[in-house]
Give the backbone structure.
Amino acid sequence: MRGRPGRGVMDFDPGVITRNLSYLLWGRLAEGDPGGLLLTILMAVSAGALALVAGVGFALAAWRCPGTIRRLLFLSADLIRGIPLIFIIFWLYFLLPALLGGDVPGAAPVILALAWFSSAAVMYSTLAGLEALPKGQREAALASGLSEGQALRWVLLPQTLRNVMPSYVALLVSLVKDTSLAFIVNVTELSTLAGQVNNRTQLYPMEIFLFTAALYFLLCRAVSLAGGRLARLRH
Amino acid sequence: MGFHLDWSGVLAGAPLHWLVTGLVTTLAVTLAASLLATVLAVGLLGLRVADNRLARGAARTIVALFRDTPLLVQILFWYFAAFGLLPGGVRDWINADHPWAVLPANVPLISPEFLAATWGLGVFSAVFIAEEIRAGLQALSPGQREAALSQGFGHWSALYHVLLPQALANAYQPTVGQYLNLMKLSSLATAIGLAEITYQVRQIESFNAHAVEAFAAGTLLYLLLGVVLGRLLLAIGPSGAGGRTSEERQADARPAGEGRHGL
Amino acid sequence: MTQDTLSPPLIEFRSVHKHYGTVPVIRGIDLTIRRGEVVVICGPSGSGKSTLIRLVNGLERLSAGDILIDGQSTAGLDGAALRRLRTRIGFVFQQFNLYGHLTAAANIALAPRKVLGLTDAEAFRAAATLLERVGLGDKGDRYPSQLSGGQQQRVAIARALAMRPEILLFDEPTSALDPEMIGEVLAVMRSLAESKITMVVVTHEMGFARELADRVVFLDEGVVLDDAPPERFFGATGHPRAKRFLSQLLSPLHQVGG
């Protein structure tokens, strides 16, 4: 499988890319089975949305309930970040069908694993953002009769989400890259399909993996750029 | 398959031997890639803070290329594509047997898998380590550099004597985080068939279907490695480096003025 | 002054104590402030003056003693009761603390909408009126970062007024301002003092105290050393410690820290 002797940079053949372009970009979308770059984007977006909701929720819980709940949240976040992401995928890939007892679409365990993993980072970033707000913001809200919950909802959280936006964008970029781990369990996103094409054609690893890397690079850049726009827009 | 646990399928016989081999391999690839990452990070940081636009531009490009593509694709690239570009003699030498370069538990250090994984992990981590330290430099008040320059320090001597010592102390903990991350990311080398912990766990699973026990053993091994490695690195670090997490640093680095009401 | 002594007590400090850990900050204060009075609290830094007014609206918890508002005990108030109390007390901070994500008008309208349950239209109409009152009628759609310090503090005063409070507490409202902006804030405070709302003002602005205060309370190391009408406080019979404080305040070489 390793690069064959006798082929170098000089023999670069873009034909293998054009022949497999639609497969790498959206897999078997025509048969109702999205794959490739499209599936990568779908997985990153859904895992990102789940991670954002869960992570912000965890951060609010940790903010409002110091003590045992906060310590438990920290402990589980550190635990989840202490093991390789692959293992979280393994666990969910194995446990989800066992627990739900039925057919689980292949991408679902990976999406959940990515969301779970990222939610820990979202929690830490959000909590840091809340704690970095000047403490006068909370005091001013309380002084005018708002409850702790109202102060959080109307004064602290809106400012935190805006301030932490750059971290969220960075986390989404990481998520895009982390979807490639679906390769390990054969979910047909971009990396897996690139591996398939490489196995099938055998002769063009340079072309295939450079093209794949370029797609990821452009996607990550696009996310960063759009995120940066969004953050500036809301000022 | 039920959920009653049977550890004999994991902690005895061939599976146990595989796990030990996996652990040694993970340790070896982590150590080798860490050393490589350190050397490369120093070079990259040097470019990144050089007093020369071309050097800084080159460093920025390298950082962007390796930071914005998945490590897995990078490893696949090094293993499947870049390895083929090496001269035939070198490839043959790497593929040959090297009894002197085999660790206990039969772990070969000179193999395409080990070298590609070490190189891939090393390059990828170097980018992140260099960026952590650069963030530490950026977090210093501009006054530090100005004070040094007005006392007659040059660009590099100000960096070396005044800025880097503070930046390293500030960035120590997040940098340790990057080395721990390297250890965890070595699990991706299973994709090119490096027989480290993750690879062995999957092998056990397909061998005797003791999935839960095998996953649990792997999970615990990584957790344990992380705790030991983390303690070790923090213990040898500067004493002032405790207590700052990368999140805190991120929070510090957020755009100034938000929610603060300066005049 | 004469009719104030006849008006009923509104804030009564009863042997109030506050300590942080083992460090005492307020060490037994008895003080009565009557409805409609303007009371200036001054003293060297660390004397406990900010803590004293932060105890009134429960931003700090009492360690011992009680504070009666309108005859009602406030010690141990929490939850909805504390929030009800806070709606009756406006608080103006040294650092303004305007909400960074909201415009000036939205800053003023937030608590009336969310706490008093006003409709958006009502709250913003009231906010516009208040902005006129502090001389910022044209700045309603500006964000805090687009306003000068003096303008931010005037918005903050309007925000405090939006809840129609019976009491206004000021915590060094001009200390964070550049000198040229102090005047505009003091002008707003002067018009408030003349409207006969009850005001407790922690400040080093002795001109304000001399001109507008009914009483000046001098605090040092957590106790009240002097409590007198301005003519007596600034006059020959004032407390010797207060005199030293005042002379240091006037001599820039001995400037006390904010």
About this structure: The longest strand of chain C covers residues 9-20.
